[in-house]
Amino acid sequence: MSTRKRLGLYAGMALSVLAASCGQQLTNSTAGNGEGKTIQAEVAAEKPGAYLFTYFTGNSKDEEAIRFALSNDGYTYRALNGNKPVINSADISSTGGVRDPHILRGADGKTFYMVVTDMVSANGWSSNRAMVLLKSTDLVNWTSSVVNIQEQFPDQEDLLRVWAPQTIYDPEARKYMIYFSMKHGEDPDKIYYAYANDDFTALETTPKQLFYSPTNSAAIDGDIIYKDGKYHLFFKTEGEGAGIKIATSDKLTEGYELQDKYVQQTKDPVEGSGVFKLNNSDEYILMYDVYTKGKYQFTKSKDLQNFTVIDEEVRMNFHPRHGTVLPITSEEAARLMRKWGSTDDIIMSAKAPALKKINISLDTAGKRLTLPVKPGTSLTSFDPAFITFPGVTITPTSAQNFTTGPVKYTVQIQGQEPQTYDVVAREYHNPALEGFYADPDIIYSEKTGKFYIYPTSDGFTGWSGTYFKTFSSEDLVNWKDEGVILDLNKDVSWADRNAWAPTIIEKKMNGEYKYFYYFTAAQKIGVAVADNPTGPFVDSGKPLIDAFPKGVTGGQQIDPDVFTDPKTSKSYLYWGNGYMAGAELNEDMISLKPGTTKVMTPDATFREGANVLYRNGTYYFMWSEDDTRSENYRVRYGTSDSPLGKIKVPESNLVIAKDPAAGIYATGHHSVIQIPGKEEWYIVYHRFNYPNGINMGSAAGYNREVSIDKLEFNPDGSIKQVKPTHEGVKGVNLKKAGMN
């Protein structure tokens, strides 16, 4: 039998007296009646002015819980309660965890219904038989009931799982219909429905099949929205093809006809689609969980047929999994802020375009906020543009002068004590690139007179990125995103995963410049060629390196580095994880010279990321030590008399390492650039995202950012240890140096 438990403390806040219908249908709260008519929900007199996003965050037990976030516009979301659960999963579930939360405003306008999967993924993907039903009148205090399908209904002996329940109001039955997927025995997952009882504590009808895939593949994660007289059922299909499709019907419980096309706008696996209508707009948002990349994608549509990606417009300070968005009123948003809002979060919400948003840092104890701004930003009159939700005020409201010291800001959340912060705005050049990137390789192009950085596209769970970009600069400070130059899914036939750690070289051949781009894909090394540093690059059609060198039995064929010996003009390729190998390249630059491959591992500190440079007759071999997920990831070096010679390792050979006092960690996988014609060197490396990386656990290893600092040598040729900085480099003037 289901159980019912009372959650939370009574907040002392009842909803305002309901007025008559305001004439605006709330998305997902009402539906057509089968004859194409609509029933208007009774809502508060105030129209929806905000959005509530409910979600969970991952597959560990502490992540399988209900979380809330707020948005004013449907695009920028801030987590409530510090991104911690708003309901304790152990109090409401039979397994100790819940997933896939769906929230609905009732047809009366004042009652809220939430349903979740009762499941802990650690027990297996076919381990749960139940869902949880929750009910609230204020979005803060919730009652709950566990509904175990196998225990409550007969003929469910072979039931393996119950997934992703959602709720919709059926105006014909005048009841709340819950629909969900179930898998029995060897059959594929199918979508079923049943009606909840009046108290929303149990199912009062036996689950009945609502929809199954005509191809007999799985159908899960259903989401129904009513538009233009039809019910649109979004669902995920698996098996023969996988992705999100739509089936439509004039009736809620039958007659769904499949539209035979996928509507997700990515080739990556997706699940958990959620559709909502933007307030005061004819546009809809379709969002879904790109779960293999640790990303959420947002798309926009007016007709629920054609969808445009709007990821660049969406901002979240959390990483959601399979959730839903509900339009709410300003009064409801203010109530949520009183309960779970934080002045620290408000002061961290600055969104001015000139800010390096992922690098904003707050000293919570000292109430001091540091806002890093992009190069060239005027700080004499600067507005951080803090986000304020209903029930929140922040002063001052106008632009301020940050050049004379910290500016005091006071944040007030209704029902809480006001808090005052010292806010500092400062120009920082590190990270050099905006966003998550790693493994940077840098060149100076004689053809264009510009610098180019070629990084790994980062920020993807498990290093699962599939494309490469490049960035150009004339001064090492201001970098332009030149876009994607190689996409594994489009441009490479032999690999479609793990686009990592590229390296590039400019060669003048027969009077023309050529660019040879060596990259890692699927733990193999390929090469692509272009006539310009920004491409287009054309892959050779096969991997250049896909096997261990002789004598090596462990590690990976990754992390190439290309180097041309200025003494001989011969070019060499170096690579390896767990070992270091080198070989001479043929004159075509896309093949290795037979018989030249040599294992060159310098010592036990070598992990990966070899980089070679030449200075004053000495060949410097540099590499990364430890794991990129470790805060102790760092760079060491050795020297040799030739490009493939024995490497001598100095006793003191640390090039760059973490600086905990500055909050800089995992400084590694680098490259080095010399300003042509000058004794001026710079090291380009990646580090954990600042300031959040050090608190992310192993995920910090794929949420990295690129930085640049000066590299200097001692009179005896040894390398001075580099101190990593936030300030970065001041920049170089190529024109003044006579390089253009």
UniProtKB/TrEMBL annotation:
Keywords: Carbohydrate metabolism, Glycosidase, Hydrolase, Polysaccharide degradation, Signal, Xylan degradation. This is Family 43 glycosylhydrolase. PANTHER family: ENDO-1,4-BETA-XYLANASE (PTHR43772), PUTATIVE (AFU_ORTHOLOGUE AFUA_2G04480)-RELATED (PTHR43772:SF2). Transmembrane segments: none annotated. It comes from Pontibacter toksunensis. It holds the Pfam family Glyco_hydro_43. Belongs to the glycosyl hydrolase 43 family. Residues 1-19 form the signal peptide.
